[in-house]
Amino acid sequence: DAGVTQSPTHLIKTRGQHVTLRCSPISGHKSVSWYQQVLGQGPQFIFQYYEKEERGRGNFPDRFSARQFPNYSSELNVNALLLGDSALYLCASSSSTVGGAATNTEAFFGQGTRLTVV
Amino acid sequence: AQSVTQLDSHVSVSEGTPVLLRCNYSSSYSPSLFWYVQHPNKGLQLLLKYTSAATLVKGINGFEAEFKKSETSFHLTKPSAHMSDAAEYFCVVSPSGGYNKLIFGAGTRLAVHP
Fold first, then answer.
1. Does B43 touch chain A (CB under 8 A)?
2. Which numeric CATH code is attached to B3-90+102-113?
């Protein structure tokens, strides 16, 4: 069975550009969350989507946006890239069924997209 | 607000010796706590989860953690380290009680020497 897949694996962008990162959840999983992991730090929560609706948002500027598609895959978009946006971006999926809220179903993480802004 | 503090950024042990990775948490109510491991070029993997059912939680690969409310701690231990345990370990708290919107500590890098 395929796990959570993210694309691309690596990406280099210039300051001011826009980037789109993609995530395909495990088959049957309807909840997708995005995290940013800056080098030397733990991951930080950015967004959670469930059934195509945003269910949670972390402390990130409006340059960060996301969406979820009918097949439950998701995109994370970042506009006007800054050097500080360089990080590993992780996607996690789970089979949340209670409105995407508190659930005991495990979240599975992808290997991430390494974004470098120069 | 909930948070976790990992007390050591790096821990180095010899193969076959015990492992202790320390974590303190801050929460105004009974938290849900996790330990995750991150191997190089691999996704985060859940080691174990505490949800108030039992204070001693057993996880995968011989790891376990003990929840101590009086000390606000959730330390991760393993009796005997293996070379394959070398990785980054994260203590995590969940405001919602589930696996969404997780709050990660800064991580502890475990090195295992022959």
1. yes
2. 2.60.40.10
Instruction: List A35's β-bridge partners, or say none.
Output: A45, A90
Digit-by-digit pLDDT tens for chain B (114 residues) are 789 999 999 999 999 999 999 999 998 777 889 999 999 878 899 999 987 778 899 999 999 999 998 999 999 999 999 999 999 999 999 877 667 788 999 999 999 999
Q: In B, which residues are within 8 Å of A42 by CB distance?
A: 90, 92, 104-107
What residue ranges do the domains of chain B occupy?
3-90+102-113
3-state helix, strand, coil in chain A (%, to 5): 5, 50, 50
Tell me which chain B residues have a C-beta less than 8 angstroms from the C-beta of A41. 106-107
* Residue B59 with chain A: CB contacts under 8 Å: none
Is there a contact between A102 and B103 if contact means CB atoms under 8 Å apart?
Answer: no
Quick one: DSSP state of residue B54?
-
